[in-house]
Design brief:
By secondary structure, the protein is an alpha/beta fold. The chain has eight helices and six strands; from the N terminus they run βαβαβαβαβαβααα.
């Protein structure tokens, strides 16, 4: 049974890099809709990349008057604990190799939002099923965040689908695939 919480949480996990992870887009999107969702907060987890970028993001937060609701939490050794506490995972990256923190969020049953032109992310997120893929920019991001923040049933449904879609990466499945590959290498039957 899901009980009402005092605070709901949007999380981001990744280095604070302007042209790669682009957390400023998430901050701007949250600022746009914050007034409609007074019981929601945003936590950004990860190492600072540049002092000036950090200050710039802090300025966006201050000018929106949201210092008490948007936090830079630094790095953590316990990502699952951060994610267990969250309600929505947003990955505003421009590009990713694989999107490990995204898969962690999804395997913890979090609905996710990413950009549709971000490689890797657009393969992990099936739009409308386990999360949303949005067009580049702040408005589309804010719109889908609001849709999920407004609707607990949608969050639960997409979160369950996200967890389900991550089963293909379960260790036992990956190990079985490696095993098969090794055996075929040893027996010389690897096909191109």
């Amino acid at each position: 049974l899901m009980c009402e919480k005092d605070a709901y949480k949007v999380v981001f996990v990744g280095r604070m890099v302007r042209n790669h992870k682009r957390p400023h887009l998430l901050i701007e999107a949250f600022c746009k809709i914050a007034a409609e969702f007074p019981d929601w907060i945003l936590e950004l987890w990860g190492a600072e990349d540049s002092r000036s970028y950090q200050k710039e993001m802090q300025r966006i937060i201050s000018s929106a008057g949201l210092e008490d609701r948007i936090s830079f939490c630094g790095t953590t050794q316990d990502v699952p604990a951060v994610l267990r506490d969250a309600d929505l995972y947003v990955m505003p990256s421009a590009y990713e190799g694989f999107g490990l923190s995204l898969t962690e969020g999804m395997s913890m049953g979090l609905p996710v939002i990413g950009y549709q032109n971000c490689a890797a992310v657009n393969e992990l997120i099936h739009d409308g099923e386990n999360g949303f893929l949005v067009e580049d920019g702040v408005d589309a991001l804010a719109e889908k965040m609001a849709a999920l923040m407004r609707d607990r049933n949608l969050r639960v449904r997409m979160g369950a689908a996200a967890r389900e879609s991550m089963r293909v990466y379960a260790p036992e499945i990956i190990w079985a695939q490696w095993q098969k590959l090794m055996e075929s290498v040893i027996s010389g039957t690897v096909s191109e």
